[in-house]
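User: Please fill in residues for this 341-position structure.
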């Protein structure tokens, strides 16, 4: 079961409140091979890579930087440690040849509903959590599924905006805002249009695909670090290979990861098109936890390798209802817990 944190405030004070709430768990996490980062790199490498990312967060995501600074105070950690936690994927990189996150989106009569598996390396399933952030008007309240210490990942806000995130591999990673913090900034926005404007004007530290939806509108963004594509979508699914670049961007997935991504896309697409017109959360979870082929499952169990991605959880987002439903590890066996704005 994922830990749940409900805090109130805005900016720095919200960060302080969340940091205090997570302080004891975060100390344990830090003492466990420095948030599990020591398994992947030396301390000197971490600091060398962090500076440009930290400068970009400060410039392009000032509200998130303020929350991060408050979080560091509340959790009694250094600001550098707090910034490192926002940059885990950029620091650790991508090691798997088997799989990563899978996403589906269904258009219903009044709105969209989405589901996503969350696939991460570094044995993070005990450190996943749910955040409910109540903020002072006019900023929306937020529900997010994330890792302890990470202030953005995927979720919904009280204006009915939802965001899913998938890894894609393209471009030269390094300088820019980590996409998890970009999601945090998007969930500050009142509308899909404001979110897309922010994306167009913000450099990404690493490549990623974002699925954004609100009301009767939905878009998929593929950001390749140096360029991006934005497509309006309806009922839709995606995994980790590039869909929209049309040969203008090199997809850096190796052949094994690409084959796995294609197979998982076919599994999710088949489940989506066989489903009823208005899927409920449990139907979506079932579509995302398929075990037909152990080599290309949409629900990947721990292999024992620290560097192997596996499915730490699965999430269903229903922003029109202000609801988020979560299954922990392994989601094929867990019961869902529901959270409400």
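Assistant: Residues filled in for all 341 positions:
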């Amino acid at each position: 079961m994922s830990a749940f944190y409900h805090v109130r405030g805005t900016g720095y004070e919200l960060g302080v409140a969340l940091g205090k709430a997570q302080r004891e768990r975060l100390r344990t996490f830090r003492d466990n091979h420095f948030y599990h980062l020591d398994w992947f790199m030396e301390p000197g490498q971490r600091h060398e890579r962090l500076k440009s990312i930290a400068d970009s967060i400060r410039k392009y995501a000032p509200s998130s930087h303020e929350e991060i600074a408050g979080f560091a105070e509340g959790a009694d950690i250094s600001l550098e440690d707090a910034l490192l936690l926002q940059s885990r994927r950029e620091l650790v990189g991508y090691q798997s040849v088997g799989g990563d996150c899978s996403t589906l989106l269904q258009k219903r009569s009044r709105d969209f509903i989405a589901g996503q598996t969350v696939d991460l390396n570094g044995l993070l399933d005990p450190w996943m959590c749910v955040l409910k952030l109540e903020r002072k008007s006019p900023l929306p309240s937020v529900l997010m599924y994330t890792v302890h210490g990470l202030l953005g990942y995927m979720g919904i806000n009280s204006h009915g905006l939802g965001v899913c995130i998938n890894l894609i591999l393209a471009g030269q990673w390094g300088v820019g805002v980590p996409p998890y913090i970009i999601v945090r900034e998007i969930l500050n926005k009142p509308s899909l249009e404001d979110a897309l404007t922010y994306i167009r004007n913000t450099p990404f530290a690493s490549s990623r695909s974002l699925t954004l939806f609100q009301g009767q509108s939905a878009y998929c963004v593929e950001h390749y670090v140096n360029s991006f594509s934005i497509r309006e979508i309806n009922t839709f699914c995606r995994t980790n290979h590039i869909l929209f670049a049309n040969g203008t961007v090199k997809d850096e997935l190796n052949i094994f990861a690409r084959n796995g991504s294609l197979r998982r896309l076919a599994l999710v697409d088949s489940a989506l098109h066989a489903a009823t017109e208005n899927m409920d959360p449990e139907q979506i979870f079932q579509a995302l936890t398929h075990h037909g082929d152990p080599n290309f499952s949409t629900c990947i169990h721990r292999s024992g390798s620290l560097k192997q991605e596996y499915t730490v959880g699965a999430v269903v987002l229903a922003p029109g209802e202000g609801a988020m439903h979560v299954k922990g590890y392994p989601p094929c066996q867990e019961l869902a817990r529901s959270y409400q704005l």
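For context: Residues 3-335 form a domain with the Penicillin V Acylase; Chain A fold (CATH 3.60.60.10).
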